[in-house]
Design brief:
It comes from Streptomyces marianii. The protein is mainly α. It has one domain. The chain is about 70% helix and about 0% strand. Helix 6 packs parallel to helix 10 and helix 9 runs antiparallel to helix 10. The longest helix is centred in the C-terminal third of the chain and has 37 residues.
Amino acid sequence: MDSTEGPADASLPRRFGRRIRESVMGGPGERDGGDLELMNRSLGFAAMGFLTLVPLMIVLAAAAPAQAAGFAHWLSRALSASTAAQHEIQQMFAPPRHVLRATTSFSLAALAIFGVTFGAAVQTGYEKAWGLEPARSGGSYAGMLARHVVWLCLVVGYVLVLTNTPLRRQSVITTPQGTAGAVLVTLMLLWASQKVLLGRRVGWRALLPGALATTVGLLGLRLFSRLVFSPLIVTSAVAYGPVGTMLVVQSWFVGVGFILYGGALVGRILHEEAWPGPRRRHG
């Protein structure tokens, strides 16, 4: 038998690396992520995120107090955009007051429906990452709907909290205190999000490694956005206009989806390899 296949005597990093490799490239461990279809789900996350979060946050930005910045400024912070890139992002969105006047109860209801659908899509991705069967209506459709609504409220609250804190535009990551606070809030959101969507099927301790992995991945994406996406927005806007900016923003959403689902898969493998014993999926 190949030494990489050794069960108990293989070190944790070796076992972890083997299972990640098998999950991505296929093989005996394909059960870990073969059904996840990471890239396809990331593309779906980008489409649903743009369809749901962008209009929803524009409306919230318009309805917020005067001190709240517009959604374009929020998105610029998330992408660590330079001043020139931030200007291009702002061209994609209407001024907040105009959005507020144009908003109707029907559009708000439509946004709520899309938001709940978005939550259901994220839940399915988490279930695939953990190898779980789709949630049955053991707790009724109303219970599942409530989970999706709570998740959407968590996401909206997270964006509102982070985007209304003072940030230095010059630096990739702000002051040490601000950075620590933002990382902690992000970690708590990701940890709670998995628990809300997966319910009792996975325990809190089992979900913590995935939340940590996703947080680290998002920090890396923020740095990558500063170095790559920010200048790319400027060049794409010159070459293709607002469509070029939108394509870069969509690429960022794809990256967020990839890290979200990939982090959950990494967390599951870390949990199962760190606490072998009787391999419980739910920890």
